[in-house]
Amino acid sequence: MSVLPSGEQWVLRGGGYEATVVSVGGGLRGLSHDGRPVLLGYGEDELAHAGIGQHLFPWPNRITDGEYTFDGVTQHLPLSEPARKNAIHGLTRWANWDRVDDGSDESTATVTHRLHGEPGYPHQLDLRVDYHLTDRLQVTASATNIGRTAAPYGYGAHPYLTVGRQLDECVLEFEAAERLELSERMTPTGSVPVEGSAYDFRGGRSIGATVIDNAFTDLPGTWSVTLTDPDTGNRSVLRSDTKWLQLFTGEPVGRTALAVEPMTCPPDAFRTGRDLIVLQPGESHTTTFQVSV
What is the pTM assigned to this prediction? Predict the structure, then answer.
């Protein structure tokens, strides 16, 4: 029996949308509406390259040197971004997840994974992702601390909005007041205002040759990022209420899609404590985002 690189495949349909959820990472292999891709996907014979559709538990983005101190103990995580010597995007992207709903509703799926303690993260979490298609895709991600000690925690997701043409020719619109500046290792060095800069897309404008791979904050309570094809009017929209947002103009995928990553905390939150969630034993945290046309 052969096994696909992304594991089991579960196709969901509803409201004109079709989504494929996979067991590897509990991720999303693609989303379309009336046959048009809304999120960049990948083939069933491929790995989820460039983070496409993955969930980032128990931290999003990077931890410099993979080292942090929590409750007085210094921890060392595997350097999953070896070229830059960082730990990146958590611990569950390549783990197997289980579908736990009965499959009777073709518009809904729920996948779960138990994260056991491991070197660098000696905590136990029960993780769950719910997918639901209506007039949009709603994704709800939750974590519950099932261990005996407090656990540092953050969540992010890595979908890529697409309207079927090169980003340079697309219009981008979003609102944020603060942007993190980064070192050559892509770790934060400080923050600067967005207003009036090359990253100010309030009201919407062409992306052109702008390269973006930055975290933004000081967002509206419920924020949105809209990508539009100015010729056809096709658009893809992601909404959430997280405190942080990472945008990435997708150079590894040929600037054909824009990664829009809702994040509960910034890079290096395990080191700095900024907007870090601390889950006490028995405590849960839930994050939701939506994708629509």
Answer: 0.97
CA–CA distance from 142 to each of 139, 179, 185 (Å)? Answer: 10, 27, 30
Q: Which residues span the domain enclosing 114?
A: 9-292
- C-alpha R_g of the chain: 18
Q: Give the CATH number for residue 168.
A: 2.70.98.10
> Total structural domains in the chain?
1
- For residues 97 and 91, is the Cβ–Cβ distance under 8 A? no
Distance CA 34, CA 11 (A): 15
- pLDDT, tens digit (0-9, with 9 covering 90-100), for 218-258: 999 999 999 999 999 999 999 999 999 999 999 999 999 99
Nearest to 159 by CA among 96, 219, 87, 247: 247
Residue 1 placed within a domain: no
Integer Cα distance of 248 and 292 in angstroms: 19
Cα separation, 284 vs 146, whole angstroms: 9
